[in-house]
Structure formats: C-alpha cells, structure tokens
Specification:
It is a single chain. With 269 residues, the chain is α/β, with parallel strands linked by helices. The protein has a single domain, classed as Vaccinia Virus protein VP39 (Rossmann fold), CATH 3.40.50. 40% of the residues lie in helices and 23% in strands. It contains 10 helices and 8 strands. Strands 1, 2, 3, 4, 5, 6, 7 and 8 form an 8-stranded mixed sheet that branches. The protein is globular and about 55 Å long. The two termini are 24 Å apart.
C-alpha cells in the first residue's frame, strides 16, 4: 500500500457514516471500557475514519493528546468537523498511511486501532509499524469483530448464508471478517508482550430493547449494505439474500435472540 485507499467493503456513503456514528455511541461502554490514557500521554489513533471513535477517546481521556490519522481526506474532514463541533481541543488530524507511518520511532505512548485490521491485506505489517512508533512500555489497543461469532434464534440457513456471503466478499477484497479470533496471535507475532484479549459480547432479546435496536442498526444494516455487491459477484443469489435478510430481522422480533462478540487486545511494547 503506497498511499492508496484499501477497499472498504461497506463504502463511504452518508448512510455508512451515520451507521458508524451510531455504532460508536451504542457500543462505547462495551468497547471502550478500560481504555483510559493518562494526562500528558501522546496517543496515535490509526484509521480514525469519520471520527466516531475519536470523539469517545478524546472525551474519555481529556488530558491526553491524540493524533488521529486516516488515508481518506474526505473522512478526515468529517472527523475534524465532529471534533470541532464537540468543542474538543486534544485531537489533531493528519492524512497518513498505516503501512508507512510518517512519525519518528518511539514517538507515542499508546496506539489505538479499531475496526481497521479486518480491511487490510497485511494486518501484521500494520501492527509492526504501530510497534515501531511506540515508546518502550507503551501499549497498543486493537478492537475487531468476528462475523463467525454471530449466533441467533430462530436459526436460519439463509441468514447464515448471507453472513457467509459478507465474509467471502471481504476475503475477495483482501480483508478478513473473522479476524477477531486471530488478535492474540497477530499482536504477539508483531512483537508485543503481555498480550491480553478480552471478548466483548453483545446480546439482544425482547428484554433488552436497546440491544435489539443496535442489532438492527449496526449488524443487519452492515450486512444489508453489501447485498448488491455480494449478489453481483455470485456469492449469494438474490432470492437467498432476501430470505436471509428477512430471517436476520426475525431474530430481533418477538421470541428472537441475537449474540455477537467483539475482541479487544492490549499488548505492551
């Protein structure tokens, strides 16, 4: 990668930006629990996108200094507007390539990476680059999902085929939608020590209406967004796709349940 955007399977539409913003807010307590940076620390946020995670990080650690990077100038503009609107002053933005970070070695105390590695052809290279810019004793935090962790009731062959179509599509585009289960070995292989991975589970049923809404607006919306491309590439036929989406929505209705697991890894330089 030499300054070119890697394929982002979900696109960069306004709808996707809104989904990412909702996702960040809805999952903040689950994903960011335990992530706080001390006053005066310098933190690199890799691939900040539209700044949905950036705002949560900056509010949670108001006396830390964040440098948030992304390759997309359009995304950076949206992120900067979000941070300015929120009145936050502890974030600076820079257009940069995760594979070729334009920073001196050992220039950051911490690195934060969220929902990036799944889209990369070479996630280990990205993690090694993150390690290079960390000071000794600094930490890397990596958060990724794993679509193979989606379990639901009523079970449905079509729903599982739809999720499998998304996994296959991301693989064709050079990514890995099952990367959550690989974080421990990836972070270790990149040279970090004391690696700790914690599963962050989302569960929804009729007794958890907020979680049910999250399943619809985050996971199902994400799957729906790649339907045209998955069908176009012949990964799923249109009839099965429509049936699978209907069955995914059925899991959020009366008597249905849905579970999904994110994985959060922390390692030390």
């Amino acid at each position: 990668m030499t300054g070119e955007l890697e394929p982002y399977i979900h696109g960069r539409s306004k709808r996707e930006s809104e989904r990412l913003s909702y996702q960040a807010g809805r999952l903040a307590d689950i994903l960011h629990h335990g992530t706080r940076y001390p006053p005066g620390s310098r933190v690199l946020e890799a691939a900040c996108g539209v700044g949905a995670q950036t705002a949560i990080l900056a509010v949670g650690s108001p006396e830390a200094e964040f440098v948030s990077i992304d390759l997309s100038s359009d995304s950076l503009s949206v992120a900067k507007e979000r941070i300015d609107t929120a009145g936050l002053s502890n974030v600076t933005f820079q257009q940069a390539d995760i594979y070729n970070l334009p920073f001196e070695s050992e220039s950051f105390d911490h690195v934060f990476i969220c929902f990036l590695l799944e889209h990369l052809a070479d996630p280990l290279r990205a993690l090694k680059g993150a390690r290079d810019v960390l000071r000794p004793g600094g930490t890397v935090t990596v958060i990724e999902g794993d679509h193979g962790s989606a379990f639901f009731y009523p079970d449905s062959k079509d729903a599982r085929q739809v999720i499998g179509g998304l996994v296959d599509l991301q693989k064709e585009m050079g990514g890995n939608a099952l990367i959550g289960r690989e974080l421990w070995h990836l972070v270790n292989d990149a040279g970090f020590s004391s690696v700790n991975v914690s599963p962050r589970c989302v569960y929804a049923d009729a007794g958890h209406p907020d979680a049910v809404e999250g399943v619809r607006k985050i996971f199902i919306a994400m799957v729906e967004g790649v339907g045209a491309e998955a069908v176009h590439r012949g990964l799923v036929d249109r009839e099965a796709w429509n049936a699978g989406i209907r069955d995914l929505h059925r899991t959020t209705e009366a008597g249905g349940t849905f579970s999904y697991t994110f994985f959060k890894a922390v390692g030390i330089r």
